[in-house]
Amino acid sequence: MENVKIAATERSPEIEFDFDSNVFTMRGESYPEDVNEFFGPLMERLESHFEDQDASEIKFTFELIYFNSSTAKILMGLFDLFDETAEAGNKVLVEWRFEEDDDNMEELGEEYGEDLEFAEFILKEVAAD
After folding, report:
1. What is the block-wise mean pLDDT of the chain (129 residues), using blocks of 10 residues?
2. Which are the contacts of 13, defined by CB distance < 8 A and separation ≥ 6?
3. Closest C-alpha to 108, from 59, 56, 68
4. Which partner for 70 in 35, 55, 56, 88 could form a disulfide, CB atoms 3.0-4.6 Å apart?
5. Which residues of 27-36 are buried (b: 16+ CB within 10 A; e: fewer)?
6. Which CATH code for domain 4-126?
7. Which ranges carry the SiaC family regulatory phosphoprotein domain (predicted)?
8. Is 0.85 topped by the overall pTM?
């Protein structure tokens, strides 16, 4: 599957999906005008790719500064997908990075992480830019 690299815009996050190495990253701000138009094709590609994985190691890193409620719903779907993929026998590591002193993003990360049963979750504080 072809890798995906989308530059961040004012309203959408930077996306780097390396399907060959199973390393996926989303960073920046996320409040696209049409969340389904932006994330729909990405979700479909991830679902298709994860279906073909067998005992694979997968890492997904989030380094979000801000996201709206529509993106929050997409993230819930992603976390469900991570858990399903891990339950199917893959090693899935989800890393949620938040800037120091950003209590809101830290708490959101904690909430998403609590929903995971099978995937591994790490909260990681990073220096603010």
Report:
1. 95 98 98 96 97 96 97 97 97 97 96 96 92
2. 26, 27, 28, 29, 30, 64, 67
3. 68
4. 35
5. bbbbebeebe
6. 3.30.750
7. 6-125
8. yes
